[in-house]
Amino acid sequence: MKAEFELGVSIFSACWQAPIERVAIENPEMNDLARDRMPDDLPAAHMVQPYWFGHPEFKATGWYLRNLPQLQPTDMLEKPERDTDEWRRWNRVHRMSPGPERARLRSRSYPGMMAAAAVQWGGA
After folding, report:
1. Measured between alpha carbons, how far is 18 from 14 in angstroms, rounded to an integer?
2. Three-state DSSP string of the chain
3. When comparing pLDDT for 103 and 66, which is higher?
4. C-beta contacts of 84-87 below 8 A and 24+ residues apart
5. Burial degree of 22 (CB within 10 A; 0-12, 13-18, 19+)
6. Given this model, what pLDDT does residue 54 score?
7. pTM of the model
8. pLDDT tens, 32-42?
9. Residue from 38, 46, 52 nearest 69 by CA
10. 3-state DSSP of 42-76
11. C-alpha angle 21/25/27, rounded to 5°?
12. Residues in CB range of 65: below 8 A, 6 or more apart
């Protein structure tokens, strides 16, 4: 587990420190241990939600951006009322049972968010 963590920190840092003009790194909210290991010039993450892009789910997604604008919502859905069945469905990512597919399903990207990134950053 520690080796995987170290590899993740190394890959993230290498991407951020790449000698290129524009960078966008998608990453979930970092825990304190990971945040303490990040490059000094790393800005705060621009946090977005899948429901901003037409996906009825809650899953805070952080974008670490250099020389790119923050993503703007493209298909904002109205949030369901807290503690309703619909609200629980939107929280499915956080309510997944342990199992072999959990990590893959929790880490998937949302097509609407990726389409917004392509359109909004593609011409930069």
Report:
1. 6
2. CHHHHHHHHHHHHHHHCCCCCCEEEEECCCCHHHHHCCCCCCCCCEEECHHHECCCCCCCEEEEEECCCCCCCCECCCCCCCCCHHHHHHCHHHHCCCCCCHHHHHCCCCHHHHHHHHHHHCCC
3. 66
4. 86/56
5. exposed
6. 97
7. 0.87
8. 888 899 999 99
9. 46
10. CCCCEEECHHHECCCCCCCEEEEEECCCCCCCCEC
11. 165
12. 23, 24, 43, 46
Q: Which residue has the tokens 């923050």?
A: 70
Pairing of strands 46-48, 23-27: unpaired
Which two structure tokens, joined as six digits, stand for 29? 């909210």
